[in-house]
Amino acid sequence: MTNINHIPNSIVLVGPMGAGKTTVGKQIAQKLGKRFVDVDQELEKRTGVSINLIFEIEKEAGFRARETAMLAELMALDNAVIATGGGIIVTPENRDILKATDNLVVYLKTEVKHQLKRLKRDKQRPLLQGKGRREKLLNLARVRNPLYDEVSDLAFASGRTSSYGMANKIVAYLREKTQSKQQS
Asked: In sequence order, what DSSP letters do the residues of the chain get, joined into one string?
């Protein structure tokens, strides 16, 4: 865990799809008076097309290259909460960017059973297309969970907690650490 003695300038949320990074990130940003930015949404806004279409045309490699450029740019933002896509950590360069940043990287851990529940109606995620969602999510978790651990400063389980509760938990933790450091 990182040594926190102030609310970090920017906070980066990592974790699997369905962990609540976007929803929780918006709430953290609001509570701390920070700007919220979602890497995937920013890519869609700038390219004018969906992530699905980028995957379809440029394949995963093309999407990952765009994602890396966007991540590097967003890491320089001041006073922001940045939600990343679930696969951001598969690219070694992205892991290096996340490990080298002065921003606080928070891993929202979630179990596959919670992902399945949250993503039940989702038809947009390229890696979940077709049958066998549970097996796909289990395989992704096996590969990616250690990588989320590798790049993060803090981890919070996002299973049964609502997004509002999760945001409150993270903000309370940051404020508590800040206050205890200022008192010592």
From this structure: ----SS--S-EEEE--TTS-HHHHHHHHHHHHT-EEEEHHHHHHHHHSS-HHHHHHHHHHHHHHHHHHHHHHHHTT-SSEEEEPPTTGGGSHHHHHHHHH-SSEEEEEE--HHHHHHHTTT----GGG-SS-HHHHHHHHHHHHHHHHHHH-SEEEE-SSS-HHHHHHHHHHHHHHHHHHHHH-
Architecture of domain 11-176: 3-Layer(aba) Sandwich (3.40)
**Model confidence pLDDT, tens digit, residues 130-154:** 566 778 888 888 999 999 999 999 9
The 10 Å Cβ neighbour count of residue 144 is 19
Whole-model pTM above 0.85? yes
CA 77-155-81 angle, to 5 degrees, is 20
* Mean pLDDT across 69-77: 95
What ranges do the domains of the chain cover? 11-176
